[in-house]
Amino acid sequence: MLSPAALRRPLGAAARLARGSLQVLASLATGPRQNNGIFYEIRTYDIKPSKMKEFVELVHKCLHLRTAHSELVGFWTVELGAMNKAVHVWKYDNFAHRTAVRHALANDKEWQGKFISPVLPLIEKQHNEVAYLVPWCQLGKPPKEGGVYEWVTFQMKPGGPALWGEAFQAAINAHINTGYTKLIGVFHTEYGLLNTVHVIWWNESPDHRAAGRHRAHEDARVVAAVRDSVRFLESQQNMLLIPLACSPLK
């Protein structure tokens, strides 16, 4: 065991280098992140094909009971890219906050009786993820109501934002700079399928998006940024979302 005097001695060059290397590796392993505990729970429900209309009506009728407990970011049904699917996103201050909300919901007899009991027979499958906004993105809002949303999911190579963050941000900014679309948020998963990034875009209409994408693919800046970022990409998919009337993001 080292004596107290030995512990107070200045570190040698090798020890300082080793400690510095560990600090650098820790930084590279985690990468940049938001400096608060706020996270978003992304819930995806597969609805029975004959029950989507009934599901949407029940959500409109009872959602106020759920939003009394925590903040809803958006609630959509999927129009293209999947079928009979609903996506909703909830904001929490931290994990203790979510635990308290889930406990309160379990004991809310009105919520359980008016929504949970009748909705369960309408749902085939449920899935959830926990994600953080990437540090260079704040949650945005559309310039007006009445548009559509594109939800794009990127499966990135392992390594996190420290590996692919800079190139991915450049590709996102290149699309923003074309002006045809509005960025709502970029989320990086903490629970669920790891190394997943969800990007939400707003467009005036599906045709407006299609025309803008066509122009973007002819923009040399966009092409260069995308080519640089795809070296970190494993796969991607997208969905066209229609917001419910009760969704905060419309």
From TrEMBL:
Pfam families: NIPSNAP (PF07978). InterPro entries: Dimeric_a/b-barrel, NIPSNAP, NipSnap_domain. SUPFAM superfamilies: Dimeric alpha+beta barrel. One of its GO terms (biological process) is mitophagy. Transmembrane segments: none annotated. It comes from the Eukaryota. Belongs to the NipSnap family. PANTHER family: NIPSNAP-RELATED (PTHR21017), PROTEIN NIPSNAP HOMOLOG 3B (PTHR21017:SF19). This is Nipsnap homolog 3A. It comes from Gallus gallus (Chicken).
